[in-house]
Amino acid sequence: MSGFELSAVCRAPALDVFKLLHDPARFPDWWRGTERVEAEGGDITRYMSAWPDFAYPTTVSPSADAGCVVISCLISNIVHEWRIEPHADGCALRVRVELPEGEAAREGAQREEVGDSLRNLVKVAEAEAP
Question: What is the phi/psi pair of residue 125, to 5°?
């Protein structure tokens, strides 16, 4: 298993960031390349702009107590663990990405996508903060 970790500081309150992270309907607002998300019952499907007709079944497992949201693609088995921690300026965000052996070659592309998404998440959260 390979992977990486990225972090950023956000001036928005942690709860506002958590709301963005755990709501799949908001993914297109900050997750680079996400065109749309369909959620029906407990089933979540992401559609990426590069492959708009290809469904990516996804799980979203929030834990407000732990300040964590785990988002996993059920096709690639790539896991994104988003953590929110206290910080004097608002909150600190840390995302840890785990790629299975079969996806290790995508680490560079994932690092770019997740880095852009982390910056977008901060930007959206700060713009919407009271």
Answer: -60, -45
Q: Which two tokens stand for residue 32?
A: 């680079």
Put simply, whether the predicted model's pTM sits higher than 0.85 gets the answer: yes
CA-based nearest residue to 127, from 27, 6, 17: 17
Tell me the angle at which helices 107-128 and 14-22 cross, rounded to the nearest 10 degrees.
Answer: 130
Q: How far apart are CA 69 and CA 62, in angstroms?
A: 4
Q: Which domains are present in the chain? A: 2-22+60-128 (3.30.530.20)
Is residue 50 left, alpha or beta, with left meaning phi > 0 and alpha meaning psi from -120 to 50? alpha
107: its two tokens: 């680490």
- Burial class of 109 by CB neighbour count within 10 A (0 to 12, 13 to 18, 19+): exposed
pLDDT at residue 12 is higher than 90: yes
Maximum distance among all Cα pairs of the chain, rounded to whole angstroms: 43
Q: How far apart are CA 16 and CA 84, in angstroms?
A: 11
